[in-house]
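User: quick one, fold this
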Amino acid sequence: MYKKSWYKWEVLALLWIAYLLNQADRQVFNVVLPLIRDDLHLSDVQVGAIATIFNMAYALFVPVAGFAGDRFSRKWIVSSSILFWSVATMFTGLSNGIFLLILTRSIATGGGEAFFGPANYSLLAQYHSKTRAFAMSLHQTAYYIGIIISGYAAGYIGEIWGWRSAFYIFGAIGVIHGIVLILRLKDKKQDTVPVVHSNTSNNFLEGFRLVFTTPTALTLTLCFSGLIFVLTGYLTWMPTYLYENFGMSLSGAGFHSMFYTHLAAFAGIIFAGRLSDKLGAKNPSLRMMMQGAGLIAAVPFILLMGNSITFLTVSIGFAGFGFARAFFDANTYTVLYDVIPEKYHSSASGVMIMTGFAVGSFAPVILGYIKSVATLSSGISMLSVIWLLCGLAMILTAKYFYQKDYRKNHE
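Assistant:
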C-alpha cells in the first residue's frame, strides 16, 4: 500500500522532468533567435513565421494526440513523444536555411511535442484525485524552471559554441530521459481505457462536442487561447527585446527575460494550487474566478514590461506578470476536468490545447511584423488588452455557468 501511495509522487517527478525538458527545448529557439537570424540572413518576419508554424503544427496534431491518449497507453505516448521531439531538436542544429528550420523545428519538433501534453496531464490526473490541483501546480513549476534554465543555458551555449550546439545538447538530454520514462513510468491499470474499434469517428468528435457545447469549457478554451497568444509572443520576442533595447549579452537577455517572470510564477503557483484546493472544496467555481482575477491583475505589469525605460521597472513588470498568471496556470486542467467526463479528459485536453496554440501561433509573426513597422514595445503593450477581456469573460462564466456545468458532470 505504501509503495502504491508513494508511486503517484514518482509519476509526478518523472512527468515533472519531462515537462521541464519539453519547455526548455521549446525555449531554445527563442533564446538563440538573433544568432539564427544573423547566421542564416533571415528577417524578423521570417523567424517569427518559424515560431508561428511550430505552434500551428502543434495545434494540428494535438487533438489527434488527445484522442490517442484516451485509447492507448499513455506511458508509451509520453515516452515516444519525448524521444521523437528530442531527436528532431538535434536535427534542427543541422539546418542551413528556413526550409529545414520549418521542417525540423516547426513541423517535426512541434508535432512530436503535441503528443506529450494530453497524455501527460491525463496520466497525472489518474494518479492524483484528492491532491489533483496541488499536483498540477507542482507539475507546472517544471514549465517555469525549464524556461529559466533554457533562457540562460541556451544563450551561454550559443555564445560559446554556436546556436547549433544548443539544439544538439538539449536534444540529447531529452533522449536520455525518454529512456528513463520507458523503464520507470507505468500506466494506472484500473483507469486504462481499452482500445475500441467501433464508432471511432464519433468518439474522436465527442471531445470537440463536449468542449464547445459546455459553456465553462468553451470559455476556458477561448481564454486559454488568449493566454497562449500572450505567452507565445512574450516567450518568442522578449529575449530579443532585451538583447536589442538594453544592450544585454545573449545569455543575459535569455536569463533576465525569463528568470523574474518564472521565479515569481513558481512562488505564485504553489500558493495558488493550495488555495485552489481549499476554495474549490467549498465552491468549485472559485477556481475559475481565480483564473480571471489573475489575468486582470497581470494587465498593468504587461504595460510596464512594454513601456519601461529602465531595466529595474521592466523586471518588476516581469515579476508581477509571472505571479499573476500563476493563478490561471494552477487551475486550467482542474477546471476543465471538473466539467468534462473522465473518459474524455485526454480528448478534451487535446481540443483545448489545439485551439489555444492555433490562436497563439499567430503571435510571433504578428509581433515580428509590428516590430518591423513600429516598435516591439508597442506590440508587447497591445497584449494587455487580450488578457483584460479574457479575465472579465472568465469571471462572468464562473458566476453564471460553472456550477450548472459542474453538477451536470457529477450527476
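User: anything notable?
Assistant: Residues 191-202 have pLDDT under 50 and may be disordered.
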